[in-house]
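tool_call predict_complex ligand=magnesium ion
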Amino acid sequence: MKVTLSAIKADVGSIGGHTKPTDKMIETVKKRVNDAIQSGLLLDGMVTHTGDDIAIIMSHTHGKDNTKVHQFAWDSFIAATKKADECGCYGAGQDLLVDAPSSNVRGAGPGVAEIEFEFNQKEPRLAESFMVVASDKTGPGAYNLPFFLSFADPMYCAGLMLPKMAKGFSFEIIDMNNTDGESSLTLNTPEDYYKLTILLRDNERFGIKAIYSREYAVQALSSSTDRLHNIAGKYTGKDDPIAIIRNQGIFPAPEEILSPFVKAHYVGGDARGSHNMPLMPVPINTAVTGAYCLPIVSAIGFSLAKSGTFTQYGYVDFFDNPAWDLVRLRAQEKAIEMRSQGWSGPAMLPYTELEYSGFKKSVTDLVKQFKVKKR
Ligand code: 13P
Ligand code: MG
Ligand code: MG
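tool_result ok
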């Protein structure tokens, strides 16, 4: 059968600031997911949060961008928004940027990652292992470096030297600044390695939407690449990304996918979506309470059972392990270093990327007051 994995996330309000959704909000979405499983819309589903973003992770047979599945996710976020409203939560309905989505939620605010594939438990995929990586207080470009390294660099993924992966991968890159429509370019590793780095160095403009195995012509990765301010035309919160990554066998293994996150690399986002700060790996369902936020990333792994279900036998929380404690400490040290220079230079995002329109207005007002003396 053909199975689709969909991970749809949105920030629809949080308690005590941009920290985490309330228990009531999560319960509300969980109940809806259970009902959708009972009604047959979904094969299975799970609700998590990463910081203040709620993620609905689903398996079903309706394909990508399916109206019913997307509408279900949208309605669930509306239901959670009502709960956020009731308790006076901050930013209730923050990521729901339109009154109603047209045929799917793409471009309406929530982040979407989806992969459809033939699930037959035959070679080359005897078992289907997948991972959901979700972040808060950062944008889609935060994944440029780690996903590039794990799918293109044998220093991070020794599996690339094996026959099943030696042909390399195709990267679908999105120009997130193009607001006319979805502007994409596909580049192939290993031959386009340098071209990819030319684009992916710019985390604010280019993002990885999908990665495909060249040997088997199947999708390995899907990542959300919507930038909320490009949709809303103003700051409405950061575009906290979510990704689904099929792994093992013909794809990199979880350890190869996660090894670049050891860097706790600097990413755009953090407080007011306007700073550069390190990305700290955290367990699933962690609130953002770090000094000056601290961008966070969570990663959970599943196996797909015969029936297309994936929650029955539990899941693995990759970053909920002492093995990542040192990385967390390093992230905090890097954060303290960066924060020690406050607003100066690389500590803040460049003017074009400052998310708070009020800040831009102040700069523009001051620039108008400059007097030019003819040379
Ligand atoms: P979120 O995008 O996660 O809501 O964060 C917004 C913000 O400005 C935090 O300081
Ligand atoms: Mg928020
Ligand atoms: Mg958020």
